[in-house]
Model the fold of this input.
Amino acid sequence: MSGDGVSAAESVPLFEARGLVKQFRSRRSVVQAVNGVSLTIPRRRTVGLVGESGSGKSTIARLALRLLDPTSGELSFDGVDLLRASRAQLRALRRRMQIVFQDPFGSLNPRMRVLDAVGEPLAVHRLATGKRRVDRVVDLLERVGLGAGDLHKFSHQFSGGQAQRIGLARALATDPDLIVCDEAVSALDVSVQAQVLNLLKQLQAELGLSYLFIAHDLNVVRYMSDEVCVMYLGKIVERGDGDELFADPRHPYTAMLVSAVAEFAPESIGDRGHRAVPRGEPASPSNPPPGCPFHPRCPQAMPRCQQEVPVMQRISADRAVACHLFDAPQEVGFR
Done:
């Protein structure tokens, strides 16, 4: 136990990525899906990842679980190097890392009954068989608001919200420490979303779970996340405490996203001129612009933005931004 009462193991972040790069190559082009992303997920906390479609969020999810191998960079889970782990080590670690996908029906085998769908991880990892397996599946179903009466049903017999609860029960089967929620509620009705989000929070409190929570809905991300990372064209452009980031977005792209949601549009955004609508569409990851990737759409772009890639820099205890506005505050009148 260290001097502040935290054990050495507890002081190690549950998950870390450093300088993560993922390129997809074809004969004609190279798609830079993820470009130098670093993030840390502490134990029993939620890190939200938000950005427009195509920003690289789902690629990050698959890299984090080693469903994809990065082109370069570092990945570690509970202090273990995921890129150098042996097959046996990786198999053991996979029990502790699970994912809940966007499409609850697409992630469930329509030919499997609930007992087999939820019990499959127990069989794969040799955790329970026979009656113990059935009892464990019933316990998992009850945790997510279903029950023993659902054991022998097929996925098509459930609503979208119920099917997502089955997917969550399956993710919980191996007693994971980290669950990646990849747009896990975006396909659900708003009222059902709220139920599933509250369930996720309840399970986190009861089981000590960590979440990487990926979504494009800022309302959902704000509700779920302790820290939020904003992605644009494969890069994290702003990160910070969730409430603080939404109350006072600093990167022009973050401000654009926040301005699109009425209840998140503080007057300070207008004071800094961030309410201007960005021009054009996001660039293609196979042909990114030079300099800052956001500069072709940024209403506050300066000449240097077209040439120099901004680096992530800390601007307060809980906030970091990759933007040239903070390299030269005198140019834009920041205090």
User: Anything to note?
Assistant: The first helix runs from residue 8 to 11. The two ends are 43 Å apart (CA to CA). The mean pLDDT is 88.
